[in-house]
Design goal:
The complex is a heterodimer of chains A (about 350) and B (about 260). Helix content of chain A is about 75%, strand content about 0%. Chain A is mainly alpha-helical and about 350 residues long. The two termini of chain A are about 20 Å apart. The chains are: A mainly alpha (about 350), B alpha/beta (about 260).
Chain lengths: ~350, ~260
Amino acid sequence: MVASARSAWGLNVGFALMLIASLAAAASIGVAGLSLGTVWSVVAGHLGLPAAQVGALTDAIVWDIRVPRALTAAAVGAGLAVAGVVMQSLTRNPLADPYLLGLSSGASLGAVAVLLLGLGSAVALSVALPAAAFAGALLALAASLAIARAAGAIGPATVVLAGLAVSQFFAAVTSLVIFLTAQGDSYRQVLSWLLGSLAGSTWTTVVVTVAALVVVLPVVAAWVARLDAFALGDTAAQALGFSVRSTRLVLFVAVSLLTGAMVSASGAIGFVGLILPHLVRGLTGGMHRRLLPAAALGGAVFLVWADTLARTIVDPRELPVGVVTAAIGVPVFVVVLVRARRRSAA
Amino acid sequence: MTGAEVRIEGLSVTRAGRRVLDDVSIALDRGAVLGVVGPNGAGKSTLLGALAGILPVSDGQVLLDGRDLATLSRREVARSVAWMEQHSERDIAMTVEEIVGLGTFPHRERGWTRSRQADAVSGALDAAGAAHLTRRAWAQLSGGERQRVSIARALAQRPRVLLLDEPTNHLDVAAQLATLEFVAGLGITVVAALHDLNHAARYCDTVAVLDRGRLDALGDPREALSTETIARVFGVATSVLSHPDDGRAVIALDGQLRG
């Protein structure tokens, strides 16, 4: 059943509390098991609050590694979920998400290309990396939609097949580029860009991903009613008095920006943008003013836990987080696909 | 509900270098029901799109109660002209109330409160005879119920002109007739692109026959849908009969014309 405004409010508060608890848990769980009290002491110390003294090593593990990683995971999860919600509305396609439509692998290629150009300073890199990933995402999106259009109708199946082709192509080029240029650990690099990994999270990735959310979310929030109206089909939506084309264009660019920033921090993590919107829609219904905030918070919680699982489940090694999200996402994808096909056949 | 007086004067639309609508002129009184018929590609949807103000017009104008559509903003047009969607899409996670609520989009501005929204939605549902569906989920409606809700959605826009593009697609016969009968009785000006000539003959005050972008015939159903016109435009042989009860035109198909 669809939530009323009040219960949607409660849901968001619940998700927000869950997110705080998840961040705390993620900072305490790991090879060096730390108590929540220790985590609090470190965080409070850095925020200038009164706190107990902790050792330098513990401080580094919490403040330099786990906290930025958990925050990056939360921001990436939120960003990918929002990107998924927006793509699904704009394409009127329940299977649309930044990963399936090739945006993520396009962004990966952009990021990898910049890394291999070897821009000297860290500051230049922290700007160039997301910018190139954004360009890659835009390119991939344009390619997917052009192929789908050339193949006829932009129905769910066509878009997904076109996205698959584009995604595979960009992933192959990314692998090739890494193998041709990198030495030593290139397998690991390929895996982390193509499957996604939060192992490289730093305070810089926190800043980049949060900044992308701060820029893009207000744009999306301003147009929730338009996102709702897309459900009526292009013509009827247009006849409500706004330009469907320019709305779609602006939001496609916004989603590419979001995806680019997220992928530059974490590589191409799949299925978050696909499954979170579906799971959350079951709780909130399809009105975007309720769906978007809940999907963002839900995506954040989901990815914090998926990453915590990825870095602890085969201790002492680390799984790419994309393996975990795929393990959960693929069955959900199958259910959504079967349902969508049944409905369109009925 | 009141309809608008619609004057289409010398309207032409060019798309990709091709004239898809060529010098079409039609005048409609307030509350008139116009049926637009013609073979596929004749320009029916283009005419509706131009009336909705969503297609660029290359020549001529559309006047709504004397005001040129081209001088109005999209939003202003949307406050007078509604387009009723055809829902083949069932997979929308919204309730009937929410779907109908989308119709108020062009009216929302400062001071558009929650209670005004609720009033607009319940008013539209009442007017469309769909109040009993208010709390239902869209995905669980039957084809006929969805059509009723779509009418309510369009009425929530408080239109003076309602546009329908082949409104009877995907519907069974009872729902087809219910839709047309209902829309024709609303009292607002209606322009409907129709496939079925008998629907046009039965429910429309005026019928416009389009052929390759040009207006071939215009008039009341019996005038516009003559055997000669139908043969020329559609390439089929028909006999136009009179309904035994009310004398309205009934078009009997005799078969395809050879030649």
